[in-house]
Inverse folding.
């Protein structure tokens, strides 16, 4: 398993709270694991979870996710990709 | 007016060939361009036999539908793009090709790239709008089926057009033509009727996309002119209300696929300043009745249709339908002349406890009316359980508080045991609840 950054742990905590996955520990989830799909190690999330994640991110960071955007699709690949995407968006959101 | 075998109906309604039919992002597509592109695609469709329509864009989906009608090719609409489902439908119905945007979804069938209206289609002279026999089978939507095998439901062009016109009489009274933005796929009956046939048979300008996140929905709404009709589901509406984004003016919101909690409908009405209406329908009949959710539980049947209640269901007759449709819901007619009725629930959902009867749907609705209950479902008794159980989403309430509130509304024999609070219900993309997942949640540990 890859090592987490502090930002990835924050994002893991946000997802676990938003999706009520309280059986998971934000400190021990694999930041490189896929969020969606049935594969081994995947979080196994579905499209309804994606709506919940978008809402949690909007409320915490003021960033509105859009599905018609390739960057969003890439961002939902893993916790790490999502964390990086939000970090890249945040300076714009502050302006 | 009854359906006549020889009757012809236009492929697209309306007199003005330059009127906008589709809105692909910011780009408008006229009726004339759409018809020309459909004729072009029909003329170049290779092979023979039925086609699967996997198009995600409503414009491309409708071009494929129109081309299949013009080329007299049977068009199948799968309930999902799961490869096993597509292969099963293909094997059962002799399908060799699938039309869609993405080759990787074609599940091993020959892939035909989705058609699109081009610049050349927009130019030049426009001839007559093609006429389609009302009796032609326009599409065969599939439902997943209770046995797990996809079930076909053939639809004639006449039935699709007439049903859409009956629904439009409610949602666009007086012949108004709102712009449609829809969050549902065009392959399902609800999306087919509201976001494809409303456009073709009603002349409604319709956004080609399927916006998903709240920000997508707001952006799509901004791309079409007012007045706007938003076609959605309880799941998407809940996300939209929770996001609280500033949206362009909406004239009306329509929801279907699952019961809409009156509390959510009221919140959406306050936020968007628009009535929130529900469609009661099924794949067999399409839409058959409508209501404004905050006005209460009374449904209004489509004009010209009649319902005959029976002990274990109801028969639906309508001049727009080729045959009577049997509904698996028990209904109570309130005013047969005006077509007003109450749904008493699924016939097989009738709860019988201690000699008393109540429907699971009725009990679910009473549960959803409790302030603080955001979502919930009643799970009928099974072999291991004599009483109904319930799964409830109510972050601010305890199980005891929910049961106390429910006890004020129903006979105590129907109080769910257990009533379990959960973080959320395992709804699929259309808001439906798979029985197996409900059973697993009931069996599992608490939240």
């Amino acid at each position: 398993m890859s090592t987490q950054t502090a930002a990835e742990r924050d994002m893991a905590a946000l997802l676990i709270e938003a999706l009520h996955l309280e059986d998971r520990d934000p400190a021990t989830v694999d930041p490189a694991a896929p969020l969606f799909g049935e594969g081994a190690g995947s979080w196994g999330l579905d499209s309804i979870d994606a709506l919940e994640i978008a809402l949690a991110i909007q409320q915490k960071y003021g960033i509105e996710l859009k599905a018609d955007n390739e960057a969003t699709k890439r961002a939902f690949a893993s916790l790490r990709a999502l964390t990086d995407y939000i970090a890249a968006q945040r300076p714009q959101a502050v302006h | 007016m009854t359906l006549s075998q020889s009757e012809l109906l236009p492929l697209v309604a309306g007199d003005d060939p330059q009127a906008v039919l589709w809105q692909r992002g910011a780009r408008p597509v006229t009726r004339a361009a759409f018809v020309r592109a459909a004729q072009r695609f029909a003329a170049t469709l290779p092979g023979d036999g039925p086609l699967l329509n996997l198009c995600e864009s409503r414009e491309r989906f409708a071009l494929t539908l129109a081309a299949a009608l013009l080329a007299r090719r049977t068009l199948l609409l799968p309930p999902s793009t799961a490869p096993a489902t597509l292969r099963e439908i293909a094997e059962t119905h002799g399908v060799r090709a699938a039309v869609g945007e993405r080759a990787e979804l074609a599940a091993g069938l020959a892939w035909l790239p989705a058609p699109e209206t081009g610049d050349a289609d927009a130019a030049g002279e426009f001839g007559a709008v093609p006429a389609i026999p009302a009796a032609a089978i326009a599409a065969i939507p599939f439902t997943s089926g209770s046995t797990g095998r996809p079930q076909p439901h053939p639809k004639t062009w006449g039935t699709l057009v007439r049903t859409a016109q009956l629904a439009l009489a409610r949602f666009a009274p007086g012949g108004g033509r709102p712009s449609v933005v829809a969050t549902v796929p065009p392959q399902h009956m609800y999306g087919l009727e509201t976001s494809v046939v409303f456009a073709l048979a009603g002349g409604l300008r319709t956004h080609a996309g399927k916006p998903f996140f709240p920000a997508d929905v707001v952006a799509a709404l901004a791309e079409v002119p007012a007045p706007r009709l938003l076609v959605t589901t309880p799941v998407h509406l809940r996300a939209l209300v929770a996001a609280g984004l500033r949206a362009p003016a909406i004239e009306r919101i329509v929801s279907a696929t699952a019961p809409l909690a009156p509390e959510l409908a009221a919140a959406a009405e306050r936020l968007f300043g628009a009535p929130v209406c529900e469609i009661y329908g099924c794949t067999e009949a399409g839409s058959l009745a409508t209501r404004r959710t905050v006005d209460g539980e009374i449904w209004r049947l489509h004009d010209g249709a009649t319902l005959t209640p029976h002990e274990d269901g109801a028969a639906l007759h309508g001049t727009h339908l080729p045959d009577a449709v049997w509904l698996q819901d028990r209904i109570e007619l309130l005013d047969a002349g005006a077509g007003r009725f109450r749904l008493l629930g699924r016939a097989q959902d009738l709860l019988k406890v201690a000699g008393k009867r109540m429907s699971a749907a009725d009990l679910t609705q009473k549960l959803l009316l409790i302030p603080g209950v955001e979502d919930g479902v009643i799970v009928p008794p099974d072999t291991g359980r004599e009483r109904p159980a319930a799964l409830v989403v109510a972050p601010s309430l305890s199980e005891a508080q929910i049961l106390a509130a429910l006890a004020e509304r129903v006979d105590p024999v129907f109080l769910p045991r257990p009533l379990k609070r959960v973080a959320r219900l395992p709804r699929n993309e259309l808001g439906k609840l798979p029985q197996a997942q409900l059973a697993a949640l009931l069996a599992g540990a608490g939240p």
